[in-house]
Each structure stands twice: as structure tokens, then as C-alpha cells.
Write the C-alpha cells for this entry.
Amino acid sequence: MIYRQYGDTGIEVSAIGFGGMRFENYDDRDACAELVKSCYDAGINYFDTACGYAGGKSEEVMGLAFREMQKTRAEKPFYVSTKSGSGLPGDVRKDLEGSLQRLQVDCIDFYHVWYVNSLANLENRKKAGVLRAFEKAKEEGLVKHICVSSHMPGDYIGQALRDYPFAGALLGYSAMNFSYREAAVQAASDLGRGVVVMNPLGGGLIPNHPERFSFVKTSPDETVVEAALRFLLNDERITVALVGMSKQEHLREAISAVEGFKPVPADEIKRIKRSLKQAFVELCTCCGYCNRCPHGIPVSKFMEAYNYKKLKGSRQDMINRLRWHWGITPETAGLEKCVECGLCENACTQRLPIVSRLGEIAEDLRNFIQAQKA
Ligand code: SF4
Ligand code: SF4
């Protein structure tokens, strides 16, 4: 396993972390806990979950494993990461107490202000006393480090890190969307903060489309999953890549990516980044150049979610992506504000037919709402 310093905390964490949102069957609690324990045995020491994953069941099964892992924690440390997305201090406290109980630990090592979807949202939480509630928990020894989790564009996350001394940031980053969050990764590195990346495999799109993403491979022997993880391991600004594990096979693949890792030469990295455009013909690369809508429509978020419809072939995957990744619900999407001026489309580096795609998405969302009502 490769270990890296988490920002300036002095904590050494494994470069591959356990992402606890993809357990296969929560009813089989022992199998879920066993998977967590196997990861620990294999050298993974960063375990991430959230109070809201599967209504708390993710924390529960991880807590079962932690109870066992506590026996060897002194000589083989592990670190617990979870989150609260509440907007009121009292609710943060309830989230924290629930998490501590389910996780069966006395302290959360990395506690995240979760789901920060804009700088205004973060400001509102500060004004409401949410950050103070996190700080109080830290003073009481219930939390070690306060972090932020966000799907905002990279420069906004960078700004959030400059505005508040978060120990680190949790953000989505992969061979698919690195340009969208590059500014955050660089800001964190400049400020001495940790960077934990979620969705390193593009939410399953990379392993499910090995041909399309074969450009990440730097040798014929590696799988596209190993290559995508090595792309991240190669970037020393990234502290941990969280792999959403649901079976032992995922652990094996992640470990083999680390074991066979050799630094990727700079010209290979350049080639991978260049190839992205060709591999993404007809797809959004998340560069963000289209985000100039005078009516405030977050165009790149819609286009990124549309990738899921295109690659997975289902409207529901796109709607899920909008809802769970971008916080955009069918009811609040606001696409009716689009006047089809074409400003975003003219700026698109991929020459995507943005206006017609937005129309298609709007229709999908209307149909979805109608189907819900029927
Ligand atoms: S086409 Fe629609 S989304 Fe694009 S800039 Fe114009 S109003 Fe905004
Ligand atoms: S400019 Fe095109 S490729 Fe870039 S984020 Fe917007 S839609 Fe995607």
C-alpha cells in the first residue's frame, strides 16, 4: 500500500480509501463488515461513509467491522470519515451523536461539512452556527479534523478552502472530469490541505466502458480500472482515492493497482489528458467553459449528467446523477428559464448540441414528474 500525509494533520493515510456507499446487501451485515475488515487487513486505513448512506446502514455495518478492528488499532491505526449535511447546529449534533453510536467509535477523525453546493450555501451554514457546532465537537474531542465535501466547480472549492481552515476537501475527481476540479486540487496542495477524491472510476462509467476509456492505459497488461486508479495515484497532490467497494473483487483490483504502480511519465499523462477529448466525442468533458448562462442555468452539470444517459442508456441514471451528485431535482431544475440563446453552445469545447440536449433533459424531467404523479 502507498501511504500519504493528509495535508498538515500529521496523519498518514492509505492512498486508496474505502468508500462505504456501495455495499451489495446490507441485510448480510456480516459479509459487509467482513469486506471492511479485509480492506483493513490489506493495508487500507481510511474509511469513508456518511450518516445518510442507506439511512445509516452503511455506518452500522462499518461500525461492526470497527469494533473488531479496534483490537489492533494501537499498532495498526485506521481513520474514520463521515459527514453531516445539516443546516442547523442542533441537527449537526444529532447527526454526530448518531454517527458515533452507529460507527462504535469515540471520535470521528475526519468530519465533513457535507453537500456544500455553493459558496452562498457554505456562508449560510456559517451564519446559522453550523461551523461553530463542528468546532465545538472538535473542542470536546468528538471530532479530530473538520473537512468539507462538495461537488462545486474546482475554483469554488478552492475559495472555500481559502475562506476557512478546513483540514481537507472531499471532491469528485477522475480521468473523466479532472479539468473541472483541477483548481481545487491545486489550491488544496498550495494550502497544505488533504484531498480525498470520490468517484475515481467515474461512478462506474469507466469500468463499464473499457473500450472508450482505454486511453487511460499506459501498458497493455493493466485493466482500465487499474489504469484509472494509477492516473490518480500518480498525482501526489491527491491524498486518497476512495474506491466504492461492494465485493472482494473490487478490493483485489484496487490493491493490484497499487502494487503494480509505477510513476507515469509526464508525457504519458499529457497524452491521457489530450485523449480525453477524442474518447469523449459526443460527451461532456466537464471543462466548464459553457458556464456562462445569463439566466443562471448550471449548464455543465446538466451536460455531465447527460453523459450518464448517453453511456448507460437510461433516463433514470441521468436523473439520479442530477439529484444525488448535483443536488438538482426534477422539480427544481429550472430549465424553463432557457431562452435558447446558444451562448453556452458556442463556448462548448466539445461542440455539443447543448440547446437541444437541454430541451431533451427538460422533457425527460417533465415526463418523470408526470409518471410520479400517475
Ligand atoms: S442556451 Fe439556454 S442555457 Fe445556454 S446560455 Fe442560453 S439561456 Fe442559458
Ligand atoms: S463546454 Fe461542453 S464539454 Fe465543457 S462542460 Fe460545457 S458542455 Fe461539457
Observations:
- The two ends are 52 Å apart (CA to CA).
- DSSP finds 15 helices and ten strands in the chain.
- The chain has a mean pLDDT of 90.
